[in-house]
Design goal:
With 294 residues, the protein is an alpha/beta fold. The protein is built from 10 helices and 8 strands. Helix 8 links the parallel strand 5 and strand 6.
């Protein structure tokens, strides 16, 4: 049995609907699948229904963007309560994202690369899913402005490039504490993907985040080098963090990433999910004890 705890659907910038993603998971024999869209839990319900039918355990999650010491990072929140205050925060972030998409369109127009929002939206598989930069990148390829989505990022859309517009983000402390308060488990996603910091510097940040309540870190990740995988495992061991991970499957917009394949094309081992759930239960028991009258 193998699992994948990091995947995107049409609720954000994946190209498969939750239902299609679950079908794919069944085809490749996954026993559990994490749904981790950017800033939204909009894919959960459809995934839960499809997962129940397919006999696949759905691990509900969300991927938040955080800003820390001049860098941008992603933080995963698993098992957050859909009725918690964190969901209101997500709604605010989604509204800000719509403004930011307008800014990206303005920037592209100023660069002589005009796109219409409806055209960008046509690369999203869902009429009410969130638009993100991978959709802009696909639209730019289709218009012939660039030859690949990666080139669209490298020349225009990546952080700091001319069409980039900043996104509303949380501090890691607020995100970690918000996930904890929502009864969830926080996992720092793919830290080394931020190339502005050395592994040593990232390790120092992990220690600080741990003090704020960080639960885990991705050690199994499709794009890790062997050195990054070894670094992540050592940090987990040293800081007593749980290990997590997955493919970060997006479908069409990341054609070299395959569902069910994490570090070194291997699936994530089953016991990772057991530990994630054990951590969730501990977090919730602690919260219940703290709330109980003395
Ligand atoms: P957004 O949520 O609109 O900020 O888009 C974030 C997504 O864009 C990430 O999940 C990545 O899939 C993709 N992305 C961000 N930066 C890059 C980059 N430099 N190269 C390729 N893809 C990127
Ligand atoms: Zn994405
Ligand atoms: Fe990410
Ligand atoms: Fe992701």
């Amino acid at each position: 049995m193998s699992i994948d705890l990091h995947a995107h659907t049409t609720a954000s910038d994946g190209s498969l609907s939750p239902c299609e993603l679950v079908s794919r998971a069944r085809e490749i024999g996954l026993s559990a699948l994490g749904i981790t869209d950017h800033d939204t839990i909009g894919g959960w319900n459809e995934a839960f229904e499809a997962g129940a039918q397919a006999g696949i355990e759905i691990v509900p999650g969300v991927e938040l963007s955080v800003s820390y010491e001049g860098g941008r990072f992603h933080l995963l929140g698993y098992y957050i309560d859909p009725d918690s205050a964190l969901i209101e925060t997500l709604k605010r972030i989604q509204a800000a994202r719509a403004d930011r998409n307008g800014e990206i369109l303005d920037n592209l127009r100023a660069l002589g690369l005009p796109l219409e929002e409806a055209f960008v939206r046509s690369f999203s598989g869902s009429p009410d899913g969130q638009l993100g930069r991978p959709h802009f990148a696909q639209a730019m390829v289709a218009r012939g402005y660039v030859s690949s989505t990666q080139q669209a990022f490298d020349l225009y859309l990546a952080d700091g490039k001319p069409a980039y517009a900043t996104k509303a983000v949380l501090t890691p402390r607020d995100a970690i504490e918000g996930i904890r308060a929502a009864g969830g488990v926080s996992v720092w996603a793919h830290p080394p993907l931020n190339r502005h910091f050395s592994l040593d510097e990232l390790g120092q940040k992990a220690a600080q985040w741990r003090a704020w309540g960080l639960d885990g870190l991705e050690t199994f990740y499709s794009k890790y080098t062997p050195e990054e995988n070894a670094w992540a495992r050592a940090v987990c061991c040293e800081l007593d963090l749980i290990e997590s991970g997955g493919s970060d499957f997006h479908g069409r917009s990341k054609p070299t990433v395959f569902l069910g394949q994490s570090f070194a094309h291997q699936p994530v081992p089953d016991e990772v999910l057991q530990k994630l759930k054990a951590r969730r239960d501990t977090v919730r028991e602690q919260a219940a004890r703290e709330q109980a009258p003395m």
